[in-house]
Amino acid sequence: MTPSQPPSSQSATPDAAPDLAAIWSNARQLHPIYAELAREFVIDVPGCSDLEVAADAPGRESVEQAQQWLNLMDDKIQVHQLRQFLQTSSLVDPDGLAAMLKHLLAKTKRTDSVRDKVDFLLVQYFSQSAPTDLEDSRADIAYVAQGLEPVLGAVDLKVPVWLNALDRILDAARKCRSLDELLHGGILEQGRKAKTQAGELFYLPTALVAFTRFGYLMRRVFFRLMLADLNSILDGLTELEEQGVETIDCRRAQFSQQEPIIRLRMICQSWKVMFQVEYSSGQPLRMLVDLRSSVEAALARGALAEKSQKKPVAAPVPAKAAPRAAAAAASAGGSKGIVAPKAAPIAPAKPKVKVVAAKAEVPEFEISAAPQEWDADADPQPGKK
After folding, report:
1. Which of 155, 161, 211, 280 matches a 20 to 30 Å C-alpha distance to 237?
2. Contacts of 300 (CB under 8 A, 6+ apart)
3. Residue 51: inside a domain, yes or no?
4. pTM confidence score
5. CB neighbours of 281 closer than 8 A, spacing ≥ 6?
């Protein structure tokens, strides 16, 4: 079976003359975006003088040179750089995203990098147009296809059977109870495997819509689990404070052995604000997972310490029973070996634990190849004290 090409590339047949005006217009729209990417990530690529001049009606040679410059930039820009840039830059609007998608979909040489960029850009484009209160049940194939129509055109909604695997992966993701379970359960790997095994079929318009829907709903699962982890951490920190704990061992989460709870609370609040923006691979996901484990370990140790303090003690003899015991001893002949029982002394309560240690472990996984820098000491809410 030979996959059909997306609408943006169907017109690029060997016999058809390229639309130089359309190519040049798209290149001019992409030039400031690519130039800013080169500047931000220090990508050493010579500039394109024709695009910098932005002539209105250039010749064929200028258009070809512009295409060569864009292709060279495509080879240099990594997927995680594009993702990070689009999450933090206000330079790219929906029209810019559409221009990038049309440029990438028109390529004849489709590498894994091109596929991953197309996949991310489609999800990003749909996410920007979808309402924030969109329910998962409403985000079906028809709804997503309608949102992508400016880029893909009208799409046949008959989904091939082999794409049903995406729904099974989504069902498994929705059953996860924590971000750790999602990251270690092999679910993300199944999603990546589905894209890889699709091969050229990935570029079928129907498949592009299905993978966009899958990526959008997986992103929502990700957000829900991240916020659930943060809330769990904050609840755990509150419980530890109520127990009198002031610091915990957070070395497994790349913090100190005696990390103040008040500082951890500020960091979590800043993460909560950060996680409200669109998903990006630079977020400290591993630190979030390990911090929850550290808090849970501290709570478990606190519960164990409290249990050990509640050892049973001998019941004291009632005051009225003491004379009776003495009289019984006297009537027995005043034996020296028999004395009136005394109340066992109650052990003084131990002071509340101030530091609860958790076992330090080497991080089990890496989430991002390019972690985002962040300042743990920064005020999570600037302007407020």
Report:
1. 280
2. none
3. yes
4. 0.70
5. 80, 83, 84, 367, 368, 369, 370
CA distance 160 to 181: 30
Residue pair 163/207 in contact (Cβ under 8 Å)? The answer is yes
Structure confidence by residue, pLDDT tens digits, 287-303: 888 888 899 988 888 77
DSSP bridge partners of 295: none
Mean pLDDT of all residues in 58-84: 90
- Domain residues for 36? 1-127
Residue with tokens 């199944």: 190
Measure the CA–CA gap between 33 and 2, rounded to whole angstroms: 34
Question: What is the separation of C-alpha 89 from the centre of its chain, rounded to a whole number of angstroms?
Answer: 19
3-state secondary structure of 355: strand
Do the domain assignments include residue 67?
Answer: yes
Domain assignment present for residue 199? The answer is no
- Domain tally for the chain? 1
Within 10 angstroms of residue 208's Cβ, the number of other Cβ atoms is 23
CB proximity list for 363: less than 8 A, separation 6 or greater: 252, 254, 286, 290
State both tokens at 110: 């489709």
